[in-house]
Design brief:
Elements: H1 9-24, H2 28-49, H3 68-79, H4 86-104, H5 110-131, E1 147-149, H6 155-166, E2 171-172, H7 179-184, E3 188-189, E4 199-204, E5 207-211, E6 213-214
Parallel strand pairs: 1-4
Antiparallel strand pairs: 2-6, 3-6, 4-5
Helix pairs in contact: 1-2, 1-5, 2-3, 2-4, 2-5, 3-4, 4-5
Amino acid sequence: MTDAGIDWSSVDRALVSAAAQLGRAGSPEDFQAVGLFCREALISLAQAVFDSSRHKSEDGVHPSRTDSKRMLDAFFSYELSGGSNEEARRHARASVSLADALVHRRTATYRDAALCLEATQSTANLASIVTGRSETDRVLPADVEPFRVPQLDEPVLKSIVDQYKQQGLDTVLPRLEERDVRLASGHRIAYYPGTRREVWVGYHAGSYQHILMIRPRSGGA
């Protein structure tokens, strides 16, 4: 299976929302909400990669549009057939179970929510690799994975920019292909606060278009 024709924007948007929710969560109800976003991300992922003409569920039941467990199981079973890939298939099933359990856990903690988000992100990573998602748009390992903001007007982007403004730093959004040229001219990467994750912005025509950078103090464009 190839990445052609797959729209990842809804998956990325749900993962952005889940990460943002985890960052501001402070109560069991807040942590439960992370599970809701993760569940939505998995449903979006399943809808994006599932092909009913090729991916058949093991029990013969045709999955509904929200049955992410059956859709992802059928997807990975077909695309990663064979006993050597059972661990990958099991991981995808477990991520759905974690999200469902978190939503209903009235004593949810930060650890519960963080584990759920990590499992959801890594399941998206697996699907990304299997489908051959383009190099500039591929979900990378969690410690270096870009923080993706599908639209320019999303509140989470404004929040990130405001945090840099509070430090007296101006940010710009050059195109991703200009990254190295901008670095050579004195710009710096504007990482997602508290991490070493680049911030990629603006999903269009199958890939992200911009990267958040810090303008040189000398006033470069």
